[in-house]
Amino acid sequence: MYEPSKSEIILTELIGRSLAQPYYRSFVDSLALSNHEHVLDFCSGSGIISDLILKKLSGGRLTCADVSHKWLKVLNQRLKGSNWRSVYLDSLDVESIQDAPFDKAVIHFVLHDFNRAQREKVLKLVKRSLKPGGLLIIREPSAEGHGLALFELINLLEKLKLGAYTYKQQRYPLIGETIDLRIRIKEDGL
Hints:
alpha/beta
């Protein structure tokens, strides 16, 4: 799949631990996590968001799934405690992600990095890994040239019939234009 360069890892860590920290905190606060939930962070990358989620789950559990060995190595160095685990995904064709079912799943700034066919596989996999009625939270960049257009995401959601959704478009300093989607997974299967 994809492995980041050393410079990408360093830049992500540097920005994530400093300038973007308020943005990440605000996003995790918006997840309205209760401390007993079982949460999936799909393609956790450096684990900056994972770490913030983990701090809100004193009685819950976090599973960080990624397609990159290098990002999982960074993540495993960052996260502490016993109520989380990392899972390597060597394929998007598995039935569900280990530790499923989840109450909530987060996909943050990564869906656009997959090609169109892979995006469908990602969303189907995450849906199968969520409890019926579970919540999928997606935040994606939407700037022209980097990210996904709102109509692309809406068309994909409607094609896959994931469930009822709400969305919000926002612009953040340093981050740019984003789309925030909340999808309540339908009770019936895919």
